[in-house]
Amino acid sequence: MIRESAKRGAGRFGRQPGGSSGTKLTGKYGTPPRGVRKRTKAVKVVNAPKAGRSSRSRRSPWRAILGVLALALGAAAGLGTLARVLPGELMALPYVPIVVAFEPWFALVALVALLLSLASRRWLTALIMIVCIAAQAWWQYPFFSPSSALPSGATRALSTANPNPIDMYARVMTCNVYKGAADAEAIVEAVRDERVEVLALQETTADFVSRLEKAGIGKYLPYSKVSSSDGVYGNGLWSVTPFADTVDDEVDSSASFMPAGTVTFGDGKAQVRFVSVHTTAPVPGYWSLWRKSLDELGMMRSRADRRYVFMGDFNATYDHAPFREFLGDRFTDAARSAGRGLTLTWPTDKSPVPRFAGIDHVVVDRGIVAGRMETKVIPGSDHAALLATIAVS
């Protein structure tokens, strides 16, 4: 009996279905043995990470490439934005003026860098790009929001066929004629079509002035003043009414002669002194001279006995600190106050490169409002002509 019970017990507890020995297949209380459980875990641990590493290896090269691009573009946008806040003294450091000339475009560079940073999960770079975009928006927004408006009388006065030389309004135009290479006939056509009453030209030559006269400038603007510091290239002013108190160089500039003449408005009610401006270009070897020529213009703020309109090639955008210092709290950049957007005037001869810098300006004094800013391409020149309507009070 004892022997049979042992056999039955062995059949019930000692073996599992399938004929395997209980001591090899089951542990205490029917759980799997310790060794089997370890082998099962090892299989799971090994298999899961293999799939994860394979997935990451497929993604990481692209993420790394996007990250490198984000860092490169982010560095460009960050340094460009930082250059905008440099004081005037540091703006004269080599190549800084050229970098700042691209300032509005760093907003687009920062936007692309921001998208790449988000895609590559570079959160710090993304945060810095947001700051850059916000700064650029703050600086450029005024060019798209008018801070002053022309009186309705200006629009009516300029809608007539011929200019009225005794009203309080005038259409003005400035253009750098690129060492006299600009199309003189195109200049005269622009004067005629736009009813220009005061014209400022830079980099004129004797031959260009001769061609301008042959093209008929005297029919529309019979009075002029042209001067040159080196006898080769000069700057000039043309007007529909006579100039008073003309001088070769109003600014006593180290860059070039900047001729000036006074024009009467409102049949003697007001007088405005126009100056044709051309500062030193910011190129290697001339960085300090560039800043000096802008500082010399800044000295004009102290001349309180006259009201000025400066027109010409300033070789600086509003983003350049020396240009803003020249404006001070007295003068106003007409493009910024008109709120018609960025007036990009240079270069026009580098196709397919578009115009990217607004270095030509119409700058007005207190009591003078400007509007209707436009640019016009002049064949043969590397600058677009800049036009504005001014109202004198």
Can you describe what's shown?
Residues 173-383 form the Endonuclease/exonuclease/phosphatase domain. Keywords: Endonuclease, Exonuclease, Hydrolase, Membrane, Nuclease, Transmembrane, Transmembrane helix. It comes from Bifidobacterium avesanii. InterPro entries: Endo/exonu/phosph_ase_sf (IPR036691), Endo/exonuclease/phosphatase (IPR005135). With 393 residues, the protein is of the alpha+beta class. It contains 14 helices and 14 strands. It has helices spanning 2-14, 22-25, 34-84, 88-91, 96-101, 106-119, 123-140, 152-157, 184-194, 206-214, 217-220, 287-298, 321-327, 334-338, and strands at 15-16, 20-21, 169-176, 198-204, 223-228, 234-239, 244-247, 260-265, 270-278, 308-313, 332-333, 360-364, 368-377, 384-392. The chain is elongated, with a radius of gyration of 37 Å. It starts with a helix and ends with a strand.
DSSP strand content: 15-25%
- What is the CATH class name of the largest domain? Alpha Beta
* Backbone structural class: alpha+beta
Report Rg: 37 Å
CATH fold node name of the largest domain: Deoxyribonuclease I, Chain A
The end-to-end distance, rounded to whole angstroms, is 131 Å
What is the helix fraction of residues, given as a range? 40-55%
Q: Tell me the overall shape.
A: elongated
Domain Endonuclease/exonuclease/phosphatase: 173-383
Transmembrane segments: 62-83, 95-116, 123-141
GO molecular function: endonuclease activity; exonuclease activity
Pfam families: Exo_endo_phos
